[in-house]
Design goal:
Blueprint (H helix, E strand, L loop, with lengths): L1 E9 L4 E9 L20 H9 L11 E9 L3 H14 L17 E2 L3 H21 L3 H8 L7 H14 L2
Helix pairs in contact: 2-5, 4-5
């Protein structure tokens, strides 16, 4: 699972902010909407181009966006845990976008220096996780023994069990 950082903006209102989040595929995270490309009023040429790119739906995301940075984690619980750490870090700079969308509570504003530090922190988190992560088979063997619904708590319990066995 990927931990991502996106910049979002509205050219009409000049509203600009950043969003942290997790996704299996951050490049497609905001490209979905209720309208299917095939059923849309787009020209045939545009439909074909979108379909060839793998876009099956027309984005209904209310902001323009660009990916700033992503890091990948082997285990979903690790990515979710790191996301929570970062969101806690940026709490004082929280921004609630004027237009609603899924994930609007994970938005914030910051300057370029803080943004660089955030990217560096994301890289450090990924490196730390890679240095400490168990083999996937070992993880799965212990994961089936843990009865916890919350993915972050479940991940931490699995890691504890693996560490305590040795």
């Amino acid at each position: 699972m990927h931990l991502y950082l996106f910049r979002m903006w509205d050219s009409n209102t000049l509203e600009t902010f950043y969003k942290l989040g997790v996704s299996k595929d951050p490049d497609k995270r905001f490209k979905f909407g209720a309208q299917k490309v095939i059923d849309s009023d787009l020209s045939l040429e545009v439909k074909v181009k979108k379909l060839l790119k793998g876009d099956t739906h027309i984005s209904d995301h209310p902001y323009q966006f660009e990916k700033i940075h992503t890091v990948e984690f082997k285990f979903d619980g690790e990515a979710l845990s790191r996301e929570q750490e970062l969101l806690t870090t940026v709490t004082s700079n929280r921004h609630i976008p004027k237009k609603p969308f899924s994930g609007l509570t994970e938005c914030f504003k910051c300057n370029d220096e803080a943004l660089e530090l955030l990217v560096e922190l994301m890289n450090d988190m990924q490196k730390e996780a890679k240095d400490d992560e168990p083999e996937e088979l070992m993880y799965k063997l212990f994961e089936v023994q843990v009865k916890e619904f919350d993915p972050i708590k479940r991940h931490r319990l699995v890691i504890e069990k693996i560490k305590s066995r040795g």
